[in-house]
Design goal:
- The protein is mainly α.
- The chain has two domains: 6-210, Growth Hormone, Chain: A, CATH 1.20.1250; 233-427, Growth Hormone, Chain: A (Up-down Bundle), CATH 1.20.1250.
- It is 83% helix and 0% strand.
- It has 19 helices and no strands.
- Helix 9 (157-168) runs antiparallel to helix 10.
């Protein structure tokens, strides 16, 4: 392979930029800053902020998950993929912007919920563009670079600016509320600006002709056929079933890590800094995953990644158990938390990137939208199982450390499925 063919094409670069663009929403609006702002606004109005936040998030995820196959099916019609992407992107952008111009907790919640649907819908269609913009032998590399740039870009630069505004803004006359509003505007500008190359240059290469009559009936018939093919194709079936379990474990670790640390009594500032390290470590390791997958194969790398997550969970259990039993001090446990943060950073972006590209290589390009719709369903509904198991285990045992054992179960199930189905997956 020549140096010229190894370089990224314009389509690949412009596609990757959307990972860089949209990750700012995931960091500032979904995870780090806006949830705290909304919770305080709702609480000050006599409402339970975390209750309404969880309701809005669940509803938004359910809407996208239920409609994902339909979105994917329409995206497969020639000329529709870019239109659907643009629709969801604009919805996400506009309703995120709305939250910067109101202090009403209901409007904040409504803006967040609808923008979440727009964000998730755009990501679904974006993922389905992967077979359009590159070849099978380059998918791992392109997908990994997308995740890598997302971690170092939108997940880091705007986040640091926002934290600086919130922390030091009062010295230049910017109170905490105004700092959050500026952070939201930064999110919108970053997301919008870096999406422009994608909107301008990325085009749909594969697709099917839109039915001339009975569009709705034909669409649902096509969705049914795709679902049947997923169960019939052992390679896709084994992979997507394993994906359901391990991506649930990955998502649970992402969403519950600080809650787990807080329950154990760890310092919140130390944990936030550790999670920032996770983002920074994830950048080079996401790229490394693409190199390793090229050398050893995607399936082997995925199995290794799931096994590493299993080890991370065991170490997390030891940390919690050590605090609860008194043979680890909080200072020692915080050091262990940092070790875990680094370990998660080595694998978090890579496992998501290789999963996306491996699946992209399995599905027929003309129906990539539909197949990625079901991929999205498995990912969204999986997000319910892990936290539910976590909460149930705490309910039954009264100990946070034992809740980690339930997450271990998810990775064990995924490993078993990958190993049992390996003879089909390597074909």
């Amino acid at each position: 392979m020549t140096a010229k063919t190894m370089r990224m094409s314009r389509n690949e670069k412009n596609w990757i930029l959307y990972d860089w663009a949209n990750s700012v929403y995931a960091t500032i609006i979904m995870t780090a800053i806006f949830p705290i702002y909304f919770t305080n606004a709702a609480n000050s109005s006599g409402q339970s902020g975390d209750y309404w936040w969880s309701i809005a998030t669940s509803v938004a995820m359910a809407v996208v998950a239920i409609s994902a196959p339909l979105i994917g099916a329409f995206a497969d019609f020639r000329g529709y993929k870019k239109k659907l992407f643009t629709f969801f992107f604009v919805i996400g952008l506009l309703f995120t912007l709305l939250t910067a111009f109101t202090d009403n907790w209901i409007l904040l919640l409504l803006g967040y919920a609808i923008s979440h649907v727009g964000f998730s819908g755009s990501c679904l269609v974006y993922d389905s563009f992967l077979p359009d913009i590159t070849t099978n032998d380059r998918m791992d590399k392109v997908s990994s670079y997308g995740y890598a740039l997302g971690y170092i870009g939108g997940s880091t630069i705007p986040f640091l600016i926002s934290i600086a505004l919130i922390t030091f803004g009062e010295k230049i006359g910017i109170d905490s509320v105004m700092a959050v509003k500026i952070s939201i505007i930064i999110t919108v500008l970053w997301w919008g600006l870096f999406t422009l190359p994608f909107l301008k240059n990325v085009t749909q290469k594969h697709g099917i002709e839109k039915p001339k009559t009975n569009l709705v009936r034909e669409t649902f018939w096509s969705i049914g056929k795709t679902l049947k093919n997923i169960f019939k194709n052992k390679k896709i079936f084994y992979f997507i079933l394993a994906y359901f379990f391990y991506i649930d474990g990955v998502g649970t670790i992402i969403s519950m890590s600080t809650s787990y640390g807080t329950a154990l009594g760890l310092d919140s500032t130390g944990m936030i800094l550790a999670l920032l390290v996770t983002q920074l470590v994830a950048f080079p390791f996401s790229i490394l995953f693409s190199i390793l997958s090229k050398k050893f194969g995607s399936l082997k790398i995925l199995i290794c990644a799931v096994f590493l997550y299993l080890c991370i969970c065991i170490l997390g259990f030891i940390m919690g158990f050590g605090i609860e039993e008194g043979f680890l001090s909080l200072a020692e446990a915080l050091i262990l938390f940092w070790v875990l943060a680094v370990l998660v950073g080595t694998v978090q972006g890579g496992i998501q990137a290789i999963s996306r590209s491996y699946y992209g290589k399995l599905v027929p390009p003309d129906n990539a939208g539909e197949y990625f719709g079901f991929f999205d369903i498995f990912g969204k509904f999986a997000a319910v199982l892990g936290p539910a198991l976590y909460a149930l285990t705490i309910d039954l045992t009264g100990r946070s450390s034992f809740a980690i054992l339930s997450i271990i179960l998810l990775f064990v199930m995924a490993l078993l499925i990958l190993l049992i189905g390996r003879k089909h997956l390597v074909k």
